[in-house]
Design brief:
two-stranded antiparallel ribbon, mainly alpha
Length: about 100
């Protein structure tokens, strides 16, 4: 999605923030196999446009829930690990300025 499309979508949302489109087509749930209409399966609450629940989708959902799915995740996680390794090995002078 281009920047212009995102900007247009945001401006449309600003004008009508609570307008939701109702999905009236029939779907088959990828998780439990139930036939339903709408955006969510009434049996297992799976989204209509989502795939099967796997460990990968659970991990992705966890990262999105806590806001860690962005590029900052690759920057934030290695730093404490490297510092812990330096402290265990005994290279504290490289990390801590006196």
């Amino acid at each position: 999605m281009s920047f212009k499309q995102r900007l247009d979508r945001f401006r449309k949302w600003q004008q009508e923030p609570f307008s939701y489109s109702r999905d009236t087509s029939t779907h088959k749930c990828n998780n439990c196999g139930e036939q339903f209409q709408g955006n969510y399966c009434p049996t297992c609450s799976q989204g209509a446009h989502m795939g099967r629940i796997t460990w990968e989708s659970v991990g992705r959902g966890f990262l999105e829930l806590w806001g860690l799915h962005t590029r900052s995740c690759g920057v934030l996680f290695p730093i404490p690990v490297v510092l812990a390794i330096f402290i265990v090995v005994g290279i504290s002078r490289a990390c801590i300025k006196y």
